[in-house]
């Protein structure tokens, strides 16, 4: 995780009995994050709104993470903006299970002081809701592979030149026909 600080929730005197729950919301001033080689900025930080519920053998945390994100378009490299509204769903066990290998995805434990750290769940929700391909607009035309012009601004002319060059070239499968003469 980039610059995510722990988001520790103290459960002391809360959620003592199965079925009890309470709501929690907050805001984190995170400047940005990276996924893979992509860097994103979070001008307004990240907000979260969760419900913690005692499920008997652990604490179930469900809710939403919201953020406005600025990045770079993957097609034309212009600035791109998108919103995150990721779902949080995390389960924190009170005690380590006897068969820990039964939990394929691993598990989280409630801390010894009856605390849970929500930063991992918030981070996962942000990353999972980040689009794999970030676009400045849905119909982004990208850059010309020949001259590098932004095709969102209009055609650059390279496509027409390439098509004409192909027609005039000897590699065109119909090139042998261009010198064909018909006698009438």
From TrEMBL:
Stored InterPro entries: YceD
Pfam family, one: YceD
PANTHER family, sorted: LARGE RIBOSOMAL RNA SUBUNIT ACCUMULATION PROTEIN YCED HOMOLOG 1, CHLOROPLASTIC
Protein name (Swiss-Prot/TrEMBL): DUF177 domain-containing protein
Biological classification of the source: Bacteria, Bacillati, Actinomycetota, Coriobacteriia, Coriobacteriales
């Amino acid at each position: 995780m980039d610059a995510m600080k722990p988001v520790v929730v103290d459960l002391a005197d809360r959620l003592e009995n199965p079925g009890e729950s309470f709501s929690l919301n907050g805001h984190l001033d995170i400047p940005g994050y990276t996924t893979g080689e992509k860097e994103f900025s979070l001008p307004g930080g990240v907000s979260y709104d969760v419900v913690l519920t005692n499920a008997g053998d652990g604490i179930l945390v469900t809710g939403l993470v919201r953020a406005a994100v600025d990045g770079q378009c993957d097609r034309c490299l212009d600035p791109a903006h998108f919103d995150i509204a990721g779902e949080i769903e995390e389960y924190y066990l009170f005690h380590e299970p006897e068969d820990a290998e039964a939990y394929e995805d691993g598990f989280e434990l409630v801390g010894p002081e009856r605390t849970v750290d929500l930063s991992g769940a918030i981070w996962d929700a942000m990353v999972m809701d980040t689009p794999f391909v970030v676009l400045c607009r849905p119909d982004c035309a990208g850059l010309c592979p020949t001259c590098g012009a932004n095709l969102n601004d209009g055609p650059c002319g390279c496509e027409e030149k390439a098509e004409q060059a192909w027609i005039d070239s000897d590699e065109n499968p119909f090139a042998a026909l261009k010198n064909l003469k018909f006698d009438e």
